Amino acid sequence: xxxxxxxxxxQVGDGNxxxxxxxxxxxxxxxxxxVLMPHGMRNLPFASAVFVGRDLDELGGTEGLVLxxxxxxxxxxxxxxxxxxxxxxxxxxxxxxxxxxxRVAAGLAELTAxxxxxxxLAAGRSWAIRWLQAHPGWLLVLDxxxxxxxxxDLLGMLHGAGTVIVTTRRDVGPxxxxxxxxxxxxxxxxxxxxxxxxxxxxxxxTDRDGAARLxxxxxxxxxxxxxxxxxxxxxxxxxxxxxxxxxxxxFERIAAAPGTGGDISRSIxxxxxxxxSTIEARSELAAGLLGVMAYLAPDDIPDEVxxxxxxxxDVAEALHLLASYSLISRHxxxxxxxxxxxxxxxxxxGTEPGGAWEQAVALLRHVAPDDPAYDVTGWDMWxxxxxxxxxxxxxAPDGHENRYVPILMSFAGTFLQxxxxxxxxxxxxxxxxxxxxxxxxxxxxxxxxxLNNLARCYDMNGxxxxxxxxxxxxxxxxxxxxxxxxxxxxxxxxNLARSYQSxxxxxxxxxxxxxxxxxxxxxxxxxxxxxxxxxNNLAYAYQQDGRLDQCRRLHEQNLADRLRVxxxxxxxxxxxxxxxxxxxxxxxxxxxxxxxxxxxxxxRVRTLGGNHPQTLASRSALARAHFDARDFATAARLRRxxxxxxxxxxxxxxxxxxxxxxxxxxxxxxxxxGIEAAPILEQIVAMPGLDAIIxxxxxxxxxxxLAALYxxxxxxxxxxxxxxxxxxxAPGHWEPIESLTFAKNLAIAYRTxxxxxxxxxxxxxxxxxxxxxxxxxxPLVQEALAILHDDRDPAESTAHLIFR
Length: 804
Description:
elongated; mainly alpha; 37 helices; disordered N terminus
């Protein structure tokens, strides 16, 4: 042996676990079998004192594990805590940073150095392996494995001798890991409750709601949460929401800032930038797909969006590569990724013309079905595309000139309208119109098409006067275009006629619909759904005009054609079934109406679901038909079902919910169950802001109806108080029938409470004004005169409810 003064330093390990040992280069290592197990030897990294959201008991045991997941998800921290939990179980615990074959060898050599001075790194690696084979019962952690090939041979040689924990971003599939004797565990982000707790404990801030908002923005990723907490702790004036604003406005800088004293290599920007560079070096297609996905919604990205124009097999391999690095998760034929991975990818991809954002828009436009209102086969795809359309719109660069964007938004708005999501439909349609005008100009055909969709949306949501203004201008512009689309022109004509009908310009509506129907047949043929739509609208116009037989014949023709062309369960076919119910009811053929509405309701439940607006409309129509047929019990049951479903989907104070509640009260009243009806109207009248919800006129009608029920149920004093307020609030421009009905009900209430002089004054006014405005034969006038000259019990007089 040489003297220590002649020895030289040998460095082993890496930057985190680096050791300088003075060893004798001429020393000869003893056999591994002869070096005993040193109890309590370990080289574990520091374990955070704040460790939340993981259940170590579920992962414990002697079975080997591979912890795989996204960079920053906390695999290493979990491995540290698992190892420290086994301090009493394992006499030796050894940690190796294993992101390359060289570092694996260095980590084994360092183990040899700790057990006995070593003459060379190469000898140290093989000696350590032999020693581990000869001394079972240890725990070995191989952290941050980049390639399976770096550790596969080692795992084979050590199998059965001890316990191994591997951490890696790579997911090579459970079968591969199991063949190496390891149980694969996907490490996901922590639960929201744990995220909030972590932020509050690390920052010592008490704003729980703010912490929850920040945790949501950070996607509950442990590394991002710790990085945010470190930054906040060094900026006392900054709140959770302040950090969120910085993250939104200056993401690259904040995502790269680990906080003073932090390790820059452990910022989310650095961790993922290096991974993305590795991906790009291996597959430009994979890097490009990740860039596209960065501009879509993070969840459920359909493979169909990512396919064109690449070869499907190439795309599948690229997606597999991204999944193997845990950058995306695969679920059947769709992908998901963490929102912060998206943000880093966006920062790298940029928004230059022809870049990832432009590609995302083009791919969405390519796969989006062209007829979102009527093409039922495309509805499932539209449901999946909606969040991605919203995402590319939200992430659009300022001042972009991509003409596909307003088209996508307009189509999305039309689809939402078909599904009854009216507020979102209007929002997207209006935004599409603004963008179309900005990008294409006000007179471009594409702009006119988008505005046509907006007008249709307005008309279907009670804004028909605005729709008429838009459509009249559109038609004038479209007719002046030398290369305008005849189909689009007829679509505008159809929509304008429908809007005319909605605002009472019936003669214009009928004339324009008849002309449009003839032209659509000539352009598209008899079996096109656009022809069916115009014929349906014309039939309703005939009904409104009192031409009931013509209305019924058109609906019968439409139903026969739609059954033949579209099938029994197509929404348009069911619209025709429902329309025949309306026609039958108008003709007072109530049994036929019940049959048609029952058929429409059954079909809509089957194809659209129990809570779709059209399904609810069919149930409401069926209840009305049963009411007309004096089957009050069935009508009440249907109304109660609709009220429950409307409350669940729209809220208790939505106008349509209130409409069904009013109809239920009417039904109970007609069945002689006024005592049950009154509490329903009391709920409506007590709603805060009722006048704003349903309008002042209908709100006063509700109060009148409640007062009438009070009279019918011998609650005259309450009726007087309520009716006095109703009559006092009734403006002079109200319809005479409504104003005089209010006055008549108050007169009955006065008479019931013994205030005959006040009652007679009101009845004389009703008789005089009613005769002038409605004629002597009108029931209201006759009833006022009868009460005025009749000494019968005033309780026998009938208070009228008004149902709109």
